């Protein structure tokens, strides 16, 4: 072979290899820039110091999380009501429906359950954490926990045990057996009746976990239940047999930041009712907003009548979702509170701050909401003023539809570093 032909072949081969390397680098760059594909997630994970699915042995530890934070109610041998906190508890049988709870022999309730043959399981909401903690730190042998906490004992309807009036969910259990396991005795209680506060029930009469917001225990700390993820069976179609790639999700140690970043404009609602108590929580959040010279130049109209919501839905071009919403808050500026001509314009800023607080509060308690503008459009303002019969000094800034989200609306990542000018 001639030397020149050989050199040409070598040169062509080098060019081909270089082209392949450049193409591979380009594909890799595209993969790195894509945030929404499983390929990019896999590449990022492999390209980092993090090694997926690498396990470390922790030894024998109670790392089953979360654990229910329940309070057990019993009568002692003298008929005195007592409570104790239990985390080693759960449903253990379907028919008959039964609950297992484990107690150490040293606990005061151990002897009470054994003797009385009954107990109640009291499920707390997160705002009762201090009472749950107290009931778990002191013994009924030493203190009257009902007296010390101010909680109210009530005799169960069907079993010989007390329940806690202030706890939103109560389960009455009849002792059917027990097992001595070692450090603990596991008591088996057949469920005789369940009692629930009406304000934690949904339209079908079932306990709504988001309304109950049960307290849970893990890692020597108490936690709230957490956000809704999916209905049972909802994601079956996503099981495709392909290798699992973990999704890189943003997490927040600070609950405030979590609410801010997960807030979304919700335009699709279920038919589940919103309670007056929930709406008052939103209004309290709105009135906690900053306000110039503390004038608080706002007025909030709460609309729950179906007819009024439907009327506004027809008249306001970007508030059609009011036809699905269960309630609405109309944020108005009160011109009598707004001040003189110099600072009168601050009402818009103050009411906007109140609106944002309402939107964030809705997100924080599992509701959905969206800002639909009224001011400064004359036609929209006239529709709201006429429908609600507002006085002349109340100027509507917006209408906020409120309800339980269907899950169709998702938060958007609006972070753009190019919008930040550092000086």
Task: Looking at this protein, list some descriptive labels.
alpha+beta, five-stranded antiparallel β-sheet, Pnp Oxidase, Chain A, NADH Oxidase, globular, 423 residues, 2 domains, 17 strands, seven-stranded antiparallel β-sheet
The CATH architecture of the largest domain can be given as: Roll
Low-confidence region ranges: 24-48
- State the helix count: 11
Number of strands: 17
Mean pLDDT: 88
The third-level CATH topology of the largest domain is Pnp Oxidase, Chain A
Order of helices and strands: HHEEEEEHEHHEEEEHEEHHEHEHEEHE
Number of structural domains = 2
Major β-sheet strand ordering: 3-2-6-9-10-5-4
CATH H level, superfamily name of the largest domain: Electron Transport, Fmn-binding Protein, Chain A
Radius of gyration (Å): 30 Å
Structural class: alpha+beta
What summary fits the major beta sheet? 7 strands, antiparallel
How far do the termini sit from each other?
66 Å
């Amino acid at each position: 072979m001639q030397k020149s032909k050989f050199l040409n072949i070598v040169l062509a081969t080098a060019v081909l290899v270089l082209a392949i390397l450049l193409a591979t680098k380009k594909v890799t760059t595209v993969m790195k820039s894509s945030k929404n594909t499983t390929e990019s997630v896999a590449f990022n994970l492999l390209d980092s110091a993090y090694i997926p699915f690498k396990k470390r042995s922790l030894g024998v530890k109670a790392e089953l999380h979360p654990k229910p934070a329940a309070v057990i109610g019993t009568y002692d041998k003298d008929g005195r009501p007592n409570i104790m906190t239990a985390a080693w508890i759960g449903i253990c049988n379907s028919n008959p429906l039964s609950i297992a709870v484990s107690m150490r022999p040293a606990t005061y309730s151990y002897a009470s359950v054994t003797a009385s043959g009954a107990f109640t399981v009291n499920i707390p909401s997160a705002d009762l954490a201090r009472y749950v903690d107290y009931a778990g730190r002191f013994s009924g042998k030493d203190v009257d926990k009902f007296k010390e906490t101010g909680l109210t004992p009530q005799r169960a309807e069907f079993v010989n045990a007390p329940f806690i009036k202030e706890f939103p969910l109560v389960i009455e259990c009849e002792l059917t057996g027990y097992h001595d396991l070692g450090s603990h005795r596991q008591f088996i209680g057949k469920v005789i009746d369940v009692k629930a506060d009406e304000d934690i029930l949904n339209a079908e009469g079932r306990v709504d976990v988001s309304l109950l917001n049960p307290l849970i225990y893990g890692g020597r700390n108490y936690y709230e239940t957490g956000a809704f993820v999916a209905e049972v069976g909802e994601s079956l179609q996503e099981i495709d047999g392909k290798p699992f790639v973990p999704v890189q999700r943003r997490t927040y140690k600070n609950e405030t930041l979590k609410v801010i970043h997960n807030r979304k404009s919700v335009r699709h609602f279920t038919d589940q009712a919103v309670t007056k108590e929930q709406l008052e929580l939103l209004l309290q959040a709105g009135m906690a907003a900053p306000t110039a010279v503390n004038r608080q130049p706002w007025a909030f109209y709460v609309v729950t009548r179906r007819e009024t919501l439907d009327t506004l839905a027809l008249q306001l071009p970007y508030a059609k979702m009011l036809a699905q919403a269960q309630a609405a808050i109309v944020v108005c500026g009160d011109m009598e509170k707004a001040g003189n001509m110099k600072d009168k314009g601050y009402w818009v800023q103050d009411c906007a701050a109140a609106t944002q607080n309402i939107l964030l509060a809705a997100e924080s308690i599992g509701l959905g909401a969206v800002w639909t503008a009224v001011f400064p459009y004359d036609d929209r303002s006239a529709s709201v003023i006429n429908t609600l019969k507002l006085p002349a000094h109340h100027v509507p800034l917006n209408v906020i539809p409120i309800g339980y989200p269907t899950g169709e609306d998702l938060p958007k990542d609006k972070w753009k570093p190019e919008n930040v000018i550092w000086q």
